[in-house]
Amino acid sequence: MKGLNKSIIKDMWYRMEEDDVSGLASQLAYFFLLSLFPLLIVVVTVIPYLPISEVDLLGVIRDFAPGEAMTLIESNLKDIMANQNGKLLSIGIIGTLWSASNGINAIVRAFNKAYDVKETRHFLVARGMAIVFTFAMIFVFILALLLPVFGREIGIFLFSEFGLSNEFLTIWNTIRWLVSSIILFIVFTVLYWMAPNKKIKCVSVIRGAFFTTVGWVLTSWAFSYYVGNFGNYSATYGSIGAIIVLMIWFYLSGFIIILGGEINAYYSKREGC
């Protein structure tokens, strides 16, 4: 068993070096940064038509984003919402989605490299798929906003009948992390299953999706704790400290997402799936 574990670690280390996972993660961090605010523009233009607020939106992001990065996101999001108009949702929607899909498109290329397959789909088909995934992510993100909001309101209503509303809020603050993690697991499972240019069984990507879900949540929490308690990036980098923190968070996120794809590809090749 020990020899097998060493073999798996050795093989995974070789795959990480061979496929340049670190370099791909850097590319993903760049594309994530380019995609973040166009994606937020789309979400923000949809929010007025839904029973959720800017506070709910920021609350979901704040659960994972480091403090300094969250400050940057909040300030830019407030500027976007202050200047938004109907044109953002109508005329600019196509260009916005095209920009926001860059991150998904980069993930697809990384997964293809993990499976050692070339992208044979037409450019418009591949980009269209990335845009569809972007739409799906927006839908899931909105769902992630709606579930906690409605879940909290329904729970407070039901528990208040028994005079237990305060106890429910304590329980809810604990389980909402579990709800968010389940949603993330579903998103990663679909992404690992559909994104590569290869026919894959859905069940074969569960290992990577589980690893990425747990790894991303723990890494985001640990990095947020480090930034909040030890890493004073503003003192070192000045006004761009928040951007540095955001880029490091994106890099770590990209690294874990690609590593999850490498785990799926490794076991797919090993088991002949």
Automatic annotation (TrEMBL):
Keywords: Cell membrane, Membrane, Transmembrane, Transmembrane helix. The keyword Transmembrane helix applies. It is a multi-pass membrane protein. Its main location: membrane. The chain crosses the membrane at residues 21-50, 88-108, 129-151, 171-193, 205-227, 239-260. It is found in: Cell membrane. Pfam families: Virul_fac_BrkB (PF03631). InterPro entries: Virul_fac_BrkB. The keyword Ligase does not apply. This is YihY/virulence factor BrkB family protein. It comes from Pseudoneobacillus rhizosphaerae. The lineage of its organism: Bacteria, Bacillati, Bacillota, Bacilli, Bacillales.
